[in-house]
Amino acid sequence: MFEKLSEVKVLRDPIHGYIHVDLQVIWDCINSREVQRLKRIRQLGGAFQVYHTAEHSRFAHSLGVYEIARRMVEEIRDLRQTLSEEEKITVMAAGLLHDLGHGPFSHAFESVTTAKHEEMTRRIILEDTEVHRALVRCCPSLPESVAAVIDHTHPNKILVQMISGQLDADRMDYLLRDAYFTGTKYGEFDLERILRTIRVRDHKMVVKESGMHSVEDYIMARYHMYWQVYFHPVSRSFESMLALTFARLKQLRQQHSPILDQIPIFNAFLEGKSVSPHEHFLMDESACNYGFTLLRQCTDPIASDLARRLLDRDLFQSCEIHTEKQLETMRERLIEKGWDPAYYLTVDEVRQRPYQPYQGNENSMVWVLMEDGSIRELSEASVIAAALVHGESKNDLRMYYPREMEKR
Amino acid sequence: MFEKLSEVKVLRDPIHGYIHVDLQVIWDCINSREVQRLKRIRQLGGAFQVYHTAEHSRFAHSLGVYEIARRMVEEIRDLRQTLSEEEKITVMAAGLLHDLGHGPFSHAFESVTTAKHEEMTRRIILEDTEVHRALVRCCPSLPESVAAVIDHTHPNKILVQMISGQLDADRMDYLLRDAYFTGTKYGEFDLERILRTIRVRDHKMVVKESGMHSVEDYIMARYHMYWQVYFHPVSRSFESMLALTFARLKQLRQQHSPILDQIPIFNAFLEGKSVSPHEHFLMDESACNYGFTLLRQCTDPIASDLARRLLDRDLFQSCEIHTEKQLETMRERLIEKGWDPAYYLTVDEVRQRPYQPYQGNENSMVWVLMEDGSIRELSEASVIAAALVHGESKNDLRMYYPREMEKR
Amino acid sequence: MFEKLSEVKVLRDPIHGYIHVDLQVIWDCINSREVQRLKRIRQLGGAFQVYHTAEHSRFAHSLGVYEIARRMVEEIRDLRQTLSEEEKITVMAAGLLHDLGHGPFSHAFESVTTAKHEEMTRRIILEDTEVHRALVRCCPSLPESVAAVIDHTHPNKILVQMISGQLDADRMDYLLRDAYFTGTKYGEFDLERILRTIRVRDHKMVVKESGMHSVEDYIMARYHMYWQVYFHPVSRSFESMLALTFARLKQLRQQHSPILDQIPIFNAFLEGKSVSPHEHFLMDESACNYGFTLLRQCTDPIASDLARRLLDRDLFQSCEIHTEKQLETMRERLIEKGWDPAYYLTVDEVRQRPYQPYQGNENSMVWVLMEDGSIRELSEASVIAAALVHGESKNDLRMYYPREMEKR
Amino acid sequence: MFEKLSEVKVLRDPIHGYIHVDLQVIWDCINSREVQRLKRIRQLGGAFQVYHTAEHSRFAHSLGVYEIARRMVEEIRDLRQTLSEEEKITVMAAGLLHDLGHGPFSHAFESVTTAKHEEMTRRIILEDTEVHRALVRCCPSLPESVAAVIDHTHPNKILVQMISGQLDADRMDYLLRDAYFTGTKYGEFDLERILRTIRVRDHKMVVKESGMHSVEDYIMARYHMYWQVYFHPVSRSFESMLALTFARLKQLRQQHSPILDQIPIFNAFLEGKSVSPHEHFLMDESACNYGFTLLRQCTDPIASDLARRLLDRDLFQSCEIHTEKQLETMRERLIEKGWDPAYYLTVDEVRQRPYQPYQGNENSMVWVLMEDGSIRELSEASVIAAALVHGESKNDLRMYYPREMEKR
């Protein structure tokens, strides 16, 4: 029914060996300008400033999520037999397209714009884009169903669980991929084993008890990747500085500074209105970096200095905050030395528990199919998960300030 | 002072890249008949019956422990600078020699003999053996000091901690090695990072806070290896059957059965007296397996049947025991069908907590050097370790019986 | 038609991830005593004396050959569509069973017995064994067809090519496996790519031009493994000494020495008659090693000394021979010192060309399917292969003698 | 004498485990804006259009070359003992800095500018830059000596050989790194073994005969990487189209087109004069890609179309050329359909022999130290190398044209 390619296309991939594509609609989506743009957006925001090889793109990750979704619907018997052909295509396309709405350096960039990346992803899929046309050519209802999987409203909850549950294609790909490209081992877990032990029961994906150890390992992998990579103080320093830089640009905009006339790259994003998919399409990491290159040459000393720091990796130092006093003292010292604390001091806090099932939120839970046929939430089956749920969460509160403040 | 080889010998090793040997005494020990014998003893007892590639020997593991000990004393500055040359040689030799006293299939075999492997190791090092002579040639006090490290009585507790603490060369090698040779990923952790973050403080090895995540990962690796490999029901089935076979042999011995005159291989071990290092030397897995080959052809139906099952992998089934009744029922069914429960029914229980520091036992603890210079026991520094210490331990109680009992 | 298991069995394997078994006949063969015996025969003869982790068994290799054969018939479309179900089972079983006839330490051991391992493999498959009965239960003609694939007489030449051609499941598994277990990288090549580019044309397996580079890489991998592992002088020293030991045993046998009455293990093999499959079954590496343990304690000084050297790795030295004179001089020096050159001096030569297609022997050739649809022999398509075919072959002629002869 | 850091800095790297830095001058160079710029230049030009994960930067490669150079001077005894401290720093810095002069997409970009990257590298090291100042702070003669190593004029030829010989740090890093990031296995070889077998004889680096097999493997790895990655038709298509795009820009420049006033990014490079280090500094892949983003919106239909194709990966098809006629026919068909062949048809040829020592060019040779102490050029010691030198070279001549020409 759905058009197949004349022969299977395979793309070499270090994580999955090969990415296999045999549907015309997937191939057309991959070749669309919106998906190709993801080659110009790095997967890991500022982490390349800590792990110098973490330069992989959201394009590669998107292919990986598609590939895991494809393997799920083809290799897990319960899914192969219960999902319709259209549902299978929907979930594979959702895997490929779930990150379309991201801007450069993701979270920092979102802080400037009012639109969230989830909303932008939805618009790209539903409005008149190459991706949209590719989906429609395959099946007119596909854009709506793909968008519904991505924003969690699809009536078949298994499709949602496959792309954004606790054991989903998105996280499984990014943990393995980020581990490979950073060169750490923390993110490794046994994907094969997990895929082999997934079943469908009570309209949801569950893991057989014999795969529970692999899930425990996956949860620990995720915990370690958070603290060693995603929450690394240097990553967060870079991202904090991006946010400060955009805050300065917004300020210049409010002052109608002529500087921004010569550096129009960011303008659409500084007006406080939502941007269009076309404006979004033009904004990638190349544009952003070239914007900083222009900015470092501009006459505003703060914007110029922050842009230089970002490009040359002259990043802010950080330290843990234990008392209000610390922050106050730093603020005073900065003012004393002539630095504006609005742009040279910032604070952020991260907090995480490795596994945390929330009452009433099925998507936050992992389900285990016990040997006796019963189904339990993970922390009722695993002594490890139980310990983690009842233990404390870990948090880290830091302030960031110029390296120069450390010199005496 | 201590004799060096004219050039460094290197042995290819998949875990460490190369094993490096530049001391004459280490080279002589490696080439001694007692260490070479370890090539004929598998590292993992019955696990090769589950993981068909788990066929690596205690010889390879012993080289690996030596290599990690060597790297510790050469690459960890605090150890390199504080240990004397003799202490360094002592700990490297202890790493190489710590498993000398093992018999075939380790724990099952120990159940027959009265001597424990620790005691046999001590005798091999201290009595007149090739290993002993190699150590004495280097330094007359070396046998005593090496034996003291292995049996935890050495006055320098750091040497003991390096070979049998919580983060010791022995465990670090076997986790990595067993993971590699089983083909699982559970046992992997970041050895490089742990070695890089070890320091010496208060006369003990501690890990810098920046390496704490790697230690958490190591602890989880250990936990998973226990349950997925060492405590796998099939491994335990094989080992239980070994114990039953030896129990049968002991019984035959007590009955002065003429069978054992034709199969003298095991005799020295069935008399209830302690064996000599020479008798121990002759008993390896080749002898044991060939003994089973003879036994399968003998006239005692139970010994012959058990030996056949061991050789042909016709292993006992197992199931978890929840009630006394289950065991009783199985016993009755066995008797009904003409099987002697003394040799066809057995029970074992395993229990484990990933990390458990015991009051008053320093060796059970991992110490963390915090950024502020203080030293904390791991579960006071890590929310993961704290959760695990306060969570439940995991246990598994099983009975084993012939496969034939499952057929109806 | 052919009985399937109720659920697919999977065996963890470091080379292939998992070995997949879904046919009853394959599962029964794996569980037969003849295949289980291969756990007691190492894959690599004496190489574990150079690469201390090369301790993997022929059992693991046999599973690997089966797995590659299974993937070939299931994943290569041209094979999946043209082979009958019986042919598919035949070739998978042939992969699993092709090594059954091997004795311990393979080639050295064959030098004692008159039967060749190919002939013994054939007898085990065709005579009354557990393996034979498992094959017959599946299909009465299976033993004959499996044996025909193994001895190259099967009418469908593709089946022969799959198990013992130039790009066969046997070599592809052993190169990858031996590389993994020695810890070298020489044997690595891109199995996935080769499998993906195999087609069937003109009743033979060919490789698409786009996979030719992977084949070149495979040929170089094979070349390097030969010289770095299989032909390593230390491996050859160990194997030469095995042959000398067996020669001594034969001599003792001819002299009706009473020694062999106390060490009957080898007797069946010393009589010059062909051994039965049952006698063959009893002879494994455990028996052989235990035989050496007894031999080292016997009263014949030569047999005892050689056995000790084998067990304790006190191996002969070797050097390249360039002139007849060298050999003569060594012989004279040995006699002078009281060593019998018949047992303390031996010579062997190895010679190899990485790729050598022989006229009239289709099995010696690799065929390439060019983009224009024509088929060429590899050296007509690849400048690398052409260079190797027309270049010189490499050879190495060595003599082996006791280490003691080197001391002055 | 030369300033050390207070503690060794380590950077996680998937190829080398860690990059180790303990010299202040190396740390300062890494943190210079010129070296940081290399984060914005991909290592592999257009190969990311074939291998979607080949997105690693020249920054990561530069660290890797430094690390191999560091290991050479610290771990190879002959180098450690014969090179002076200043020579060691010189060669490590040369490894780190050898690629500074590269523009975006390397070779394609060079075709526009008159300056070659070697010349630009030299200027950046010798003129007033952050890198230059860091070198001078360490030692005033360092810029000159580093530049001399890079442009092959340094009096100590071993330093030149280490960075740009046949077995140099540059190639060894890029083969391993490119293999890792493309996910292919072709580029793997045994770096450890090669480093372990390097010696210095007759004022040059030689490899011991026992490492010769690793060198053969390295040469084959290089050959395969060339044809599978660097010369892949899709990489070459992307790079050909870059050259056509720049050709179009030059044409617009010559016509004084007003388009370039609005897109000034490339102007400095289109004037036919040599650019300054500062202009070079501003031109990275971000600038280039953003330039294409502007260009796709411009009014010149050819420039706009080519820019769109580059950004959206709508690349030219290619086919091998066997006759002049093919090219002529394509040219005519293009004109007929209204495409300008000057911008829509291009030809390139690649040619390579895996190993080719040139008379009189010592740097083109690998030297082998034979067991008898003599030194031979590789092809006189290795039957593999000899075969390759005397075999044919491989070449590939292709034309590239729009995909649309294939549709009928």
TrEMBL record, chains A, B, C, D:
GO biological process, one term: dGTP catabolic process
InterPro entries: dGTPase-like, HD/PDEase_dom, HD_assoc_2, HD_domain
SMART domains xref list: HDc (SM00471)
Pfam families assigned to the protein according to its UniProt record, in alphabetical order: HD, HD_assoc_2
Domain of life the protein comes from: Bacteria
UniProt domain HD: residue ranges: 58-175
Regions crossing the membrane: none
Single GO MF annotation: dGTPase activity
PROSITE patterns assigned: HD
Protein name stated in the entry: HD domain-containing protein
Taxonomic source organism: Holdemania massiliensis
Lineage: Bacteria, Bacillati, Bacillota, Erysipelotrichia, Erysipelotrichales
